[in-house]
Amino acid sequence: MRILRHRQVRRLAQAHTAGKTCPDPTDSKWGSYPSITVLPPWPGAVAFWLIATDVDQDTLSYDMAGPFGDRFSVEGHTGIARVAKTLDYEVRKDVVIVVEDRNDNKPVFQNPPSSASNDTVGTIVCTVLAEDRDTGSSGLVKYSILGIIPNTTENVNLFTVSDNGSIYLNGLLDYNSKSTYYQLQLQAYDGGGLLNGQHVVQRSQIIYLPINVVDVPNLAPQFIGAPFEGSVSEDAILNKEILRVVAIDGDKGINDYIYFNITDSTRPTWFTIDSVSGTINVNSTLDREDLLKEDEAVRLQVYATEAKEDVNGIRAWNSTWVTIKVTDVNDNDPKFYFCQTADCNFSQAQNTFEGFIEEHASSRVPVNNLSIVAYDPDKGPNGTFHLSLHGKDRDAFSVFPNKVVNQGEVQVLVFNSTLVDYEINDNMEVEIVANDSMSYKTSSAQVTIKLIDINDHAPTFNQSLFVLEVSENSEIGTVVTDSIQAIDPDTGPWGSITYQLLPDRHIFQVEPASGVVTVKNGSLLDRERQAVHYVTLQAQDGGKQMGSTLLEIRLKDVNDNPPVVSSSYNAFVKEEVDGVNVKIQAYDNDEPDSNNSRICFEILEGPYSRNFTVECDSGVLTNGTTLDREAIDPVLLGRIQLTVLVFDLGVPSLNTTVNVTINVEDINDNQPVFNSSLYEFSIKERLKGAKIGVMEAWDADQTEVNNRITFTLSGVGTNNFVIHASPQPGNLHGGRYQGTLSLDPEVTLDYETKPNNFSLTVQAVNTDSTVGLNTTQAVVRVVDINDEPPYIVKDSLRQVEVAENQPHFGVVTTVKAEDPDTSADVKIQLLSVTCLQDQRDVGPVCRDWFVVDADGTVSVNESSAIDYELCDLVHLIIRAWDNHTCENYPAYSPDGERPRSASLVFLGVSPSRNLGQQRPPVPPPLPPQANDSDAKGTQEINFSIMKVEFIRKDETNSTHQGLFSIDTQRENNMHLGRITVATSLDASLKGKYQLTVQAKDNPFSGDSLATNHSLSLFTVDESQKVQLQFSQPASEVAANSEEIKESLTLATRTTVYIASIADFSEKDRASRWGSEALGSGWGGSQPA
């Protein structure tokens, strides 16, 4: 068997390594196409050995695969191949084993370059090479740049690398302005291939490729330390070194030699420069004073030129300016010049000067016309010198300034003005000496000063202050003073004096020549405005020299001001309680503590002035008697206006007046009074809500709050009436009220029901009941109208026995009828006749047996024959008729009446009751009561509610069902119907419930009889529920409950019910009712 290494045969024996590098199949120990004979060919026999080496010395493992790989088995760690299946020469005598390459080698760089020059963009900087020992695409190497140092945005794409390893320059390099060194992070990678069954791309180690930038000569020289400045003393020796100019080649990588020369200078001969070292030296004599207009400096232009040519074929150069300051030495003396500083050229010095000044000129006043300038051209301390004054008159003058730096104007000043006196010496001389502070050299100048005579004496007064007096309001021309004179020692025009007053306020005037002071405007002399005037009397000589004195002119008082009251006065007092105490404030501007300013007070005569007094001195106003608001005219509304005269004690006396208003406040000190002690009224019965009459009362108090009157009613039947209070017409000032008495809108009076005459007590009440109450009597008589039907007297309806077939005819009984009306005309009528035989109706057989006359007489009809066998019982149905009954009222007795019949009536039923909006704790209405007059068999009565209507206060109504229920009870011979609230009532409804209640009997035989009655139940608002809390315990309140109810009824003028009385703790007081009261505003008297 042969093992062949051939690319076309796809048989593989694989060697796996634990490292990264595959064994080298080209190693010479493999030989050349070895051939192996396999004996013996049975399974388990060793066929051959696989031997491989690894350059990395990694541990190897062996395996075999392919179409015939199953014929052999290989030991992984030794490479021994054994026969796995029996080999048959006749089937296959040769097996070729091919070892294929795998991508197990990384590219490796070979000697990268390390420098680059200023190459142009797009050129190749250098080329790198990396080798990969794998074959095929696994050995195909490419390159990438992973990073660059310096890592800046500008450098990111500065270099690129091609697939063949060439590195290109994408941007410009600059040795001097950019980096001189770059470092590229490079990596090589192959085309990828199989390794351990996966496609793998092998990458080399990262290498760092340094690129050094090589400089080229393309920049001009650069000066180091510019700008260049130096200094040198003006007395410097020749060739003295001043400063050194330094320059270098702009191309730092080349650093060519530099040569220097001076091309321009403001003083061409003064300085030179060494061409190699750049040192600047003194070349000639220097004089700083020649440079005064050039800021004491020399400017040089220095050129620096490279020794070699640059890339453009020329020698690069650069230039700079050098400034050399020439410093001063003390080589000049100070000198004096006649000029002004601004236009001095200091060409000609001078040592004599002449000026003039007035005598007695003030200290530090300069001598005129000198124009002296002192000058030393040296600088600083060298040009500093001191000035001093010498000569015979040096004590009278001084020199200014004492010290001068370089130059300055010199002034001779007056030092002692008393020595500068024309009368003593008209020409004065001094010497100015200048002393150099450094060299002590001196120079001097002689100064002649001529004095000018002046008016040196001013007028004077012998006093600085004169005190004068004049009366206020003096007439024009009144002399204030004529004895004040000024003195001037000068003669001639200098001693001529004129006078004037300052300031000129047009109050006083002075005669210019004599100095006499008089009044100019007396109306401006008001002591109260200004008691003292100060003016200056000024004296002036011919030379306008002035002297002055102060005049203090005091004004004497006259009585020219009336008293002044600060304001009017208002006082508020309660009648009969408070007293008036008003202090009137006044002042007088005349002289204090004199009769002109002393003030007195007096009340002028008026309607109420005698009730008040005022103290003359103090101005305290008080009332002399008790004030009564009702004694004041009502038109004044309680306001009393007094006029007080305020006058002074001067001559003549002056005065003013002030009004003092006393507001007398009303209190409730009067009780209402009726116009009459008895009022009598009459009212027809059956008139609902009719007006009865008017009562009048008057309260003398003058304010509405105290004179407003309300009326209350008390007495039997009060609940039938209401009384309304209103002001009387034309009552302009109040206090007069009328009480209109009317029937309650829900009540009508019945003459037949007692009482029909009412005696009411009417009470007039105002807001304060403590002042007492006033009452009157009102008698209301009910006038009868014919409104009641007649009725049959029951006792006259009795059973009468009449024998049949009797020969006697005549009256068998008399039926009596009555009418409660006073004007009734009652007649009896027969309505029907019922004939009975053994309790059976036998028809009209007895119709004509009896007759009934209008006066109630029942007689046997003479033409009739009474036959017991035909009829044993006759029932006569009769009725009473009132011939005078008023229209719209019943004229007949109800239903007709027959013997032994009866009707149902209601007794003692209250016409109306009040209901709250909730069931408890509203007290239930009084029950309806009924009885039946039948003697037997019909005395069982049942009650029922037939209809419920709610009538609102606006007269609209609505029907309701199920709100109330009624139960029938019996007490003695009376039937009671108790009405209860069946469900909660609507709290929003306000008005009354109108109930129609029916009472119906239950006879043993025959039809039931019934009668209806109307009952009103009034709602009670929550606002009418009142909680009262007492300080006494509940037991004491209960014991006095009737008295409390009576007081509440009187106060509220309504019906009061006490719901409960209980003791409460302090905690309960905040959350529960202590005592509750329910009241009705319907019926009885309305609250005022």
UniProtKB/TrEMBL annotation:
Keyword flag Signal: yes
Region ranges (Disordered): 911-936
Gene Ontology molecular function, alphabetical: calcium ion binding
InterPro entries: Cadherin-like_dom, Cadherin-like_sf, Cadherin_CS
GO biological process: cell differentiation; epithelium development; homophilic cell adhesion via plasma membrane adhesion molecules
Keyword terms of this UniProt record: Calcium, Cell adhesion, Cell junction, Cell membrane, Cell projection, Differentiation, Membrane, Phosphoprotein, Repeat, Signal, Transmembrane, Transmembrane helix
Membrane topology of the entry: Single-pass type I membrane protein
Source taxon at top rank: Eukaryota
Compartments reported by the entry: Apical cell membrane; Cell junction; Cell projection, Microvillus membrane
Cadherin domain segment(s): 117-223, 224-336, 349-461, 462-565, 565-674, 675-792, 794-923, 930-1035
Pfam families listed in its UniProt record: Cadherin (PF00028)
Chief localisation class: membrane
Gene3D superfamilies attached to this UniProt entry: Cadherins
Subunit structure: Part of the IMAC/intermicrovillar adhesion complex/intermicrovillar tip-link complex composed of ANKS4B, MYO7B, USH1C, CDHR2 and CDHR5. Interacts with MAST2. Interacts (via cytoplasmic domain) with USH1C and MYO7B; required for proper localization of CDHR2 to microvilli tips and its function in brush border differentiation.
Function: Intermicrovillar adhesion molecule that forms, via its extracellular domain, calcium-dependent heterophilic complexes with CDHR5 on adjacent microvilli. Thereby, controls the packing of microvilli at the apical membrane of epithelial cells. Through its cytoplasmic domain, interacts with microvillus cytoplasmic proteins to form the intermicrovillar adhesion complex/IMAC. This complex plays a central role in microvilli and epithelial brush border differentiation. May also play a role in cell-cell adhesion and contact inhibition in epithelial cells.
Name of this protein: Cadherin-related family member 2
Biological classification of the source: Eukaryota, Metazoa, Chordata, Craniata, Vertebrata
